[in-house]
């Protein structure tokens, strides 16, 4: 996607693919004077964006729809996720938030959760939560933006960009980051610093939106949400009204 809101999109070279629901998590550390975000450097040998710094994220998994959580989605977050077309169900909104937590744990080893009774029943990608006696906790997530990959791309995603404070990290899985992994390094970097200059154009736009919101005070669910998508053959940005 372009880093401007109203530009011609590239020619369509591929048949139409329906976008897959996906989620990305921007973890922030606000303990210092300048907020920091967590980025991971991709392995040099991967096909997509080798050696680049990225935020953890990926497609919604079937387990995201049915996994128990430590707390429900805040009403404002759920309402924000239900905005924009194509419309989704409340269950899908919950799965998107849970997906962001799972992907962060799988790719970085950092688990956003809460100690609760019964967590030991989790397995598969959620095993690290069970081992730590946790359930995923989406109650501290905020939606920053939504973006749909333009038609004509081999891979298309309908991505919701979430953010959460680093204080929500309840457990760290050792050994996830290593020289042979998809992410070979994790770095907390100040917003606006050099490693962030090489991010994907759309991700930079989302990061800019997060920076703007952080500068205005505590994060709120009633902030306007940018929604990037193609309409009438052109990329545009709609502003969705945030919900308190």
TrEMBL record:
Q: Which cofactor does it need?
A: Mg(2+); Mn(2+)
Q: Looking at the record's lineage, which domain of life comes first?
A: Bacteria
Keyword set for this entry?
Hydrolase, Magnesium, Manganese, Metal-binding
Per UniProt, residues of the Nudix hydrolase domain are 18-213
- Name a GO molecular-function annotation: metal ion binding
Protein name in the entry: NUDIX hydrolase
Q: Say which species the protein is native to.
A: Rhodopseudomonas palustris (strain BisB18)
């Amino acid at each position: 996607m372009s880093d401007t809101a109203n530009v011609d999109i590239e020619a369509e070279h591929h048949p139409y693919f329906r976008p897959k629901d996906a989620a990305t998590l921007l973890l922030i550390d606000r303990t210092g004077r300048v907020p920091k975000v967590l980025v991971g450097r991709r392995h040099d040998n991967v096909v997509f964006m080798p050696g680049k710094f990225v935020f953890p994220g990926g497609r919604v998994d079937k387990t995201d729809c049915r996994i128990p959580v430590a707390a429900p989605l805040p009403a404002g977050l759920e309402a924000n996720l239900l905005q924009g077309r194509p419309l989704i169900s409340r269950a899908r909104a919950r799965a998107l938030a849970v997906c962001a937590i799972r992907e962060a744990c799988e790719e970085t080893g950092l688990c956003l959760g809460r100690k609760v009774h019964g967590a030991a029943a989790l397995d598969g990608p959620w095993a690290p939560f069970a081992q730590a006696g946790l359930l995923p906790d989406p109650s501290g997530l905020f939606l920053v933006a939504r973006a749909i990959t333009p038609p004509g791309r081999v891979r298309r995603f309908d991505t919701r960009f979430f953010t959460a404070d680093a204080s929500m990290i309840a457990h760290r899985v050792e050994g996830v980051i290593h020289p042979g992994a998809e992410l070979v390094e994790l770095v907390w970097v100040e917003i606006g610093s050099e490693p962030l200059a090489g991010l994907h154009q759309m991700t930079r736009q989302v990061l800019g939106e997060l920076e703007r919101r952080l500068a205005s005070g505590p994060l709120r669910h009633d902030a306007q949400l940018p929604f990037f998508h193609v309409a009438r053959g052109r990329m545009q940005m709609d502003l969705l009204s945030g919900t308190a």
